[in-house]
Predict the structure.
Amino acid sequence: MRQRNTGAFERGKSPTPRPDDRETATVVPPSGALTPTNALTPTNALALQRTAGNAAVNALVARQPVAIQRAVVSVGNVSFANINSGDAAFAAKADRILQLLSANPSITTFLNGRAATITLEHRVTETPAEVIDRGTGPVDVRLAAFYFEDYDVGYIAGMLAHEFGIHPMAATNDTLEIEEFLRDGDHQVPGLDEGRTMNASTAKQADHIMGVLPISPRYKIYKNLALEMAKQLLDQTFANPEAAPAADVTGLLDCFLMDVASIAATNDNRLAGAGLSDAAATARADIARVYNHYLTLITDDPGLNALVVPWLPGQKTPKAVTDDFLLLGRRVIAAGANKYNYFHKSSISNR
């Protein structure tokens, strides 16, 4: 079963890396080597030497990309694949996320001993992440390299909470049976004026609408997972505040709230909030209003640990929503310009 996601919109750089004594890593040979049109091969090097001399060959060599050693990094039965093993910051970031996922009670129950692998790849035109649950087999998540490289741990955790919580974890018979009664209804968008509705049957993805509808079991699964992860991230902060800043707790919850708000406010047409038109500005204002309503909901939620409360994000303004869209747009453009180190297209596209 294939699931897609268009997810988080936020800021951040990775925290200071910390020594890692828990991960098990296996370095594998470079794969999917970058082959630009001017790539150096024995044939074109000799041809260039004959026509332009040794200086031209040396210049071409200097422009060649450095080979990136890929690694599979695992904690328990959860793994990151395609990690740049030569970058300590990336390895530390991957380890924190793996510690989070492998210790999460809801994900552990869902996997029931199965493996889950998160593979980094070059994704630009696709959604930043997608998940495939093979039932009795492993769970595969494909995550855009730019999202892993440029967003903090909290936002990555928020994206993964969506992938697991809205999609396969909620795809139970009981959930689907209840959703049959909700699917065709026009449901009031939390935080917007009476009559502003969302409808799963007309949305891009029905499970996205069910994942943000407060009366739906899918929303409750997603929300509970996000709140569990928030407490786990805070525990990481208590254990090592330098390597695991408490701002990651805020980032995760901001990611969750932007996700549910942008889906609900636009009936899962989140690109409606992008651009310079008056309609886009109105959509961003709507997203801010819906965000603030969901913020109230989770603030009052009995599943929110009291220790997390000081790290809840503040009220979202339309300008802050605009900034989130602009930041995501800049990072997608940079990814399209091959700023990042991962050049692998999805092996599960169009499946």
